[in-house]
Design a protein that fits this description.
The complex is a heterodimer of chains A (257) and B (309). Chain A is 74% helix and 0% strand. In chain A, helix 3 runs antiparallel to helix 5. Chain A starts with 7 loop residues before the first helix and ends in a 6-residue tail after the last helix. The longest helix of chain B has 16 residues. Chain B starts with 6 loop residues before the first strand and ends in a 9-residue tail after the last helix. The chains are: A mainly alpha (257), B alpha/beta (309). Bound molecules: adenosine-5'-triphosphate and magnesium ion.
């Protein structure tokens, strides 16, 4: 048997998932980029003079990696979760369930397409901010590693949530009460060193914190924790989510009655 | 040596909460058959098809498509099977052709354009090939579902009420196309509520009710089953119904009686006895049972004692 990544079934589903968001790129790519830039403009304008997180790094510059990562994560999640819930609601999920696709093929296709959307939006935000702030790129390899890892985690989480949710509002609840707080409290807008010790400890239980901290390390060469530790947390989180989601797909949880 | 069956189902059960949707189904569909699956709403037809397609996990029992277990050898089993679902579903993001190219790709077929064109042609979809799925009428969407089930040229094709909400013209052309596929060696399983359709197309028929197969035979035999129980309408112009046949009376209206006979040969003694008792026959008609009648009566579980329809 051919490796999964070369199977026509996987490649078709992957390409279909990419096409699905690309065909409506105004709302799936352009809108989130504008959204992130609004955050940048508003927060930078309000806080520029008052906050300095790292020595010699203006707040506006500090903010960029966090916003890029947040856009990447949210859009990766949105891609797989919305695709799944829409297919379930309209019933066209059967087009994916009837063919001889394995659970691994389905998993990888949805997750990698989500990574694709995350990177396109994140990359778009970064590209525009280059005109607005002098962004350093100290360790590009870390940047790429954490962008991929973070997007993959959220892609898998979106798939999991999309399989689990029976209605769009359940998905919205998941987004509002899980994804959003975890992202906002992960240090997108601040360094956790500016927090009281108890909140620092709590932040360290949040995998999103490690994604953003490691990502930021790639830009500035400074971070709250060692990027290797962050990478370990990111990898571990992905493995756990992948195992859960693959099991759901293999057993047909909520998809095959 | 016997060739493997197109579909083999053994001891299949499936419960949804308190509802026994499948209650021990055993069924074998031979290769090349045109097979009918009939039964009232909720009989379990779609559930049975879902098990074959891997959309539904049975509680007990096994199912094979062309010899491949639908669970343990799902890849091979699904390659062998094309399913036209009962509900109209579609992906609004794509055009008709894109839908079919994508569906081909899921089955590992990357250069399927010639066959896709042929299907589009036969289903009268050629002019709609580049139309978005959303813009199609219900009947057109259903044709695309048929096309999607055929992209990988499956040896076994299951159609779950494919003609619901479809106009006469498509019904004709669809059946011509499906017949041709059957003649080319494809096994066809069809569920329908149009009984004349099943009678005209299917070689064998299984009737389901309450999650069980309650009748399974050739279409000819099932019709014959009724033929052995001939209904005779007789109008007398004098005299009375012979005593010997009073018990056979199903209904009476003045001097017109409907009798159920166990055998067509009984018509002879009936007429003889009427003449002997001085009666005269004004009108006599023998009613031929059709499949609908077999169907309805089998469903009632009262074959042989039902009211005439
Ligand atoms: N996912 C499900 N959850 C709960 N009950 C179900 C589910 N699917 C089917 N059922 C029930 O199982 C029974 C059999 O349904 P099924 O769809 O197989 O019937 P059918 O013979 O196809 O009927 P129809 O002619 O109306 O299509 C019905 O009572 C139905 O309500
Ligand atoms: Mg049905």
């Amino acid at each position: 048997m051919k490796p999964v990544l070369f199977s026509a079934g996987f490649r078709t589903l992957f390409a279909k998932e990419l096409m699905r968001f690309w065909k409506v790129s105004f709302q799936t790519v352009f809108a989130p980029i504008v959204n992130a830039l609004l955050y940048l403009v508003v927060f930078a304008h309000v806080l520029e003079e008052r906050v300095q997180v790292y020595e010699g790094v203006p707040y506006r510059v500090f903010l960029v990696p966090g916003l890029v990562m947040m856009a990447t994560l949210q859009n990766a999640f949105a891609n797989s979760s919305s695709s799944l819930i829409q297919s379930k609601m309209t019933g066209n999920i059967i087009f994916v369930l009837l063919p001889p696709l394995s659970h691994v093929e389905i998993f990888l296709a949805y997750v990698l397409a989500a990574v694709g959307r995350g990177l396109v939006v994140g990359g778009g935000v970064l590209a525009v901010t280059l005109f607005l702030a002098p962004i350093p790129f100290v360790h590009p390899a870390w940047i790429i590693a954490f962008a991929l890892g973070g997007a993959a985690i959220l892609g898998a989480l979106g798939l999991l949530a999309g399989i689990w949710a029976d209605k769009v509002d359940q998905l919205a609840a998941f987004q509002n009460f899980v994804i959003l707080p975890f992202t906002f409290l992960s240090g997108v807008f601040y360094s956790i060193h500016s927090l009281a010790p108890v909140w620092q400890t709590i932040s360290r239980a949040n995998p999103f914190f490690f994604m953003i901290d490691g990502f930021r390390h790639g830009f500035f060469g400074v971070s709250d924790v060692d990027p290797w530790l962050s990478l370990g947390v990111v990898a571990g989180t992905f493995v756990v989510l992948a195992a859960v989601t693959l099991t759901m797909l293999r057993t047909g949880y909520k998809l095959r009655t | 040596m016997t060739t493997t069956a197109a579909i083999l189902v053994e001891g299949l059960t499936k419960r949804f909460g308190g509802l026994q949707a499948l209650d021990g189904i055993d069924l074998e569909v031979h290769r090349g058959e045109f097979f009918g699956l009939l039964g009232p709403n909720g009989a379990g037809k779609t559930t049975l098809i879902s098990v074959l397609a891997g959309l539904c996990r049975p509680d007990k029992g096994r199912a094979r498509v062309m010899g491949h277990d639908v669970r343990t050898e799902y890849r091979n089993a699904r390659r062998m099977l094309g399913v036209v679902p009962q509900e109209i579903v579609f992906d609004p993001f794509f055009s008709v052709r894109e839908t079919l190219v994508i569906q081909s790709g899921y089955f590992g077929l990357r250069h399927n354009d010639a066959w896709i064109d042929e299907i589009l042609e036969h289903l009268g979809l050629a002019s709609k090939a580049d139309a978005n799925m959303r813009s199609l009428s219900g009947g057109m969407k259903r044709r695309v579902l048929v096309a999607q089930a055929l992209v990988h040229r499956p040896p076994v094709i299951i159609l779950d009420e494919p003609t619901a909400g479809v106009d006469v013209e498509l019904r004709q052309s669809l059946w011509a196309f499906i017949r041709r596929l059957n003649q080319d060696g494809h096994t066809i399983v069809l569920t329908t509520h149009y009984l004349e359709e099943a009678e005209a197309l299917c070689g064998r028929i299984a009737m389901m009710k309450g999650g069980r197969v309650i009748a399974l035979d050739t279409t000819a035999n099932l019709v014959g089953l009724m033929r052995d129980r001939v209904l005779v309408r007789i109008t007398l112009a004098g005299g009375a119904l012979p005593e010997a046949f009073a018990a056979r009376r199903v209904s009476s209206e003045g001097s017109s009686h409907v009798l159920r006979l166990g055998d067509p040969c009984e018509v002879e003694p009936l007429l003889a006895q009427i003449r002997e008792s001085g009666g005269r026959i004004a009108e006599l008609s023998v009613m031929q049972p059709d499949l609908e009648e077999v169907f309805v009566q089998t469903m009632r579980g009262t074959l042989g004692s039902a009211e005439p329809t």
